Amino acid sequence: MTTATAKTIQIYLPTGEPRGIRIAEITTRIVQAILIPRSDLAQGKLRRELDLPGVYFLFGEAEEEVLC
Question: How many CA atoms, within 13 angstroms, populate the side-chain half-sphere of residue 22?
C-alpha cells in the first residue's frame, strides 16, 4: 500500500461570497475546478478560465428561467 502525500488546495472566491463562484486548485498542479451556481451562471460565463479547453458538467434541476 502507498502512503498518501500531503497536498494544499487553494480556493479563490472572485466575488468574496463563499456560496458564489469558487475556483479551486491543487497548488502543485495545473488542474482547476470551477464551481458556478446556476444563479451566477451569467456572471460566470465572463470568466477567462472558461475560454480554455476543459470538461464541463451541469448538475441540478433546471430552473424556469433560461440564463444562457
Answer: 12
State the Cα–Cα distance between residues 13 and 23, nearest whole angstrom.
Answer: 7
State the DSSP code for 34. E
Q: How many residues does the chain have?
A: 68
Spatial contact of 37 and 19, defined as CB atoms under 8 Å apart: yes
CA distance 18 to 56: 21
CA dist., res. 62 & res. 24, Å (int):
25
Note if the pTM is more than 0.85.
no
Angle among Cα 20, 7, 55 to the nearest 5 degrees reads 50
Q: What is the pLDDT of residues 19-55, one digit of tens each?
A: 999 999 999 988 899 999 888 888 988 999 888 888 8
